[in-house]
Amino acid sequence: MTDDKTSESSIPPSESKAESETPSPMLASRTICAQIIAQWINTGDFPDRMLPSESKERPLMQEIVYGVSRWMRLLETIITQLVPRDPDPLTKAYLLVGLYQIFLMDNIPPHAAANETVEASKVDLDQARVRFLNGVLRNSLRKSEEIQKILHEASLAVRSSHPDFLVDRWTEEFGEESTAAICDWNNKRPPVILRVNHHRTTTKDYTKMLAEDGIEVELHPADSKNRFLILPAGISIPDLPGYTEGLFTIQDPATILAVDMLDLKHGLSVLDACAAPGGKTFACAEQMHNKGTIIALDRHDDRIAQLRENARRMHYSCVKVHKADATKKIGLDSIEDYGPFDRILLDVPCSNTGVLRRRPDARWRVTDERLSRLTGVQARMLNACSRLLAPDGIIVYSTCSLEPEENEQQIERWLSLNPNFKLDSQTFNIPPDSNTDGAFVARLVRNDK
């Protein structure tokens, strides 16, 4: 689960905007990308939250916004070869948009990328800054070979566009070769993967349904139960057959590890304490054949709304959505009447270092201070939720982190303070060897005897 926050600020267009001209959709999309990136630079808000949901140009905008946030360090290295100091945030955002297309996109001719970025910038920038942008992008084209050589000779952290903090940690933990492989994995565009809802259909039947719509899919090799399908690029999820009928959810196979470790049966009471957007919740409901009770919690209004909408689409009557703060005992008072719970799933807020290919901007937020804050939140959730567990019940603790403080060290520390629990089993997926997102899962069993 990601440690999200809500974005409320925005970057207003400059007064130089040409009101008499309507830019083409392609130019307008680059303008929007630059405005999103400028806001991200200024505020640290989540860039994926700012992308317009309804736009024919969304694939291009997503490619550019995610690409710039993923390759930010490498792009900034290029900028240092072209200008003596950073321009203002909005001009820099257009510069990043142009450089990303020139150096890292292979489906747009470099000169065309420069031209279109300069034209798009005229919505926001005055003439002096437009001339500056044009000059820098033209210079990057002339110096392309020299810049490529500098990047090739740079450190792993620079050429793979990761912070030194993470590369140093991973090198110590996993070794140089594995760290290079993790960085390469993080920079690959992730495929869209769905999990077939076996409560309503079979993988064979749903694959046939997709084929009848002209959609060819592949079984994901990491799941022996054939529940996950890899979709071709460019597919609109809401347009897939069976979307409104709840025949599938969008999930990476790594997410099912925690659900499988719960050892679910018909009629159990289950608490999913950090449920949004609901993929693990609905996998639990499927394994329970919609018989029992699942209390799905989140504390953020926007994520609760998303969870409720997804719950409606999946048509599981056993799922009950509640807003609550699972980090505080008093925050869970509203659901105590549903307990004690036979199973508790704690998919805790974490650094997301196991899913950086899907959340590329998260790599720039990981610090010692943030890890310390997150491990405190995780421990508080374990403390608050464990008191709601039935005797002989099971807690499954999971993260999408590669950091030991959030994983095995967290569990060891918590168990040392709670001797009435024991570690039953744990697993750790490390990409790319796992061929899935990174994930840590530990099963804790309560035994008061």
What does this protein structure show overall?
This protein is of the alpha/beta class. The chain has three domains: 25-154, NusB-like (N-utilizing Substance Protein B Homolog, Chain A, Orthogonal Bundle), CATH 1.10.940.10; 190-250, Alpha-Beta Plaits (2-Layer Sandwich); 253-446, 3-Layer(aba) Sandwich (Rossmann fold). It is 43% helix and 14% strand. It has 17 helices and eleven strands. A seven-stranded mixed sheet has the order 7-6-5-8-9-11-10, sandwiched between helices. A four-stranded antiparallel sheet has the order 2-3-1-4, covered by helices on one side. Strand 8 (341-347), helix 16 and strand 9 form a beta-alpha-beta unit. The two termini are 33 Å apart. Mean pLDDT is 92; it is low at 1-21.
Structural class based on helices, strands and sheet pairing? alpha/beta
Low-confidence stretches: 1-21
Q: Tell me the count of domains.
A: 3
CATH top level class name of the largest domain = Alpha Beta
- Alpha-carbon distance between the two ends: 33 Å
* Element-by-element helix/strand order: HHHHHHHHHHHEHEEEHEHEHEEHEHEE
Note the beta-strand portion: 5-15%
For the record, what is the CATH homologous superfamily label of the largest domain?
A: Vaccinia Virus protein VP39
Tell me the total number of β-strands. Answer: 11
Instruction: Specify the CATH architecture of the largest domain.
Output: 3-Layer(aba) Sandwich
Q: Give the strand order, joined by hyphens, for the main sheet.
A: 7-6-5-8-9-11-10
The rounded Rg comes to 24 Å
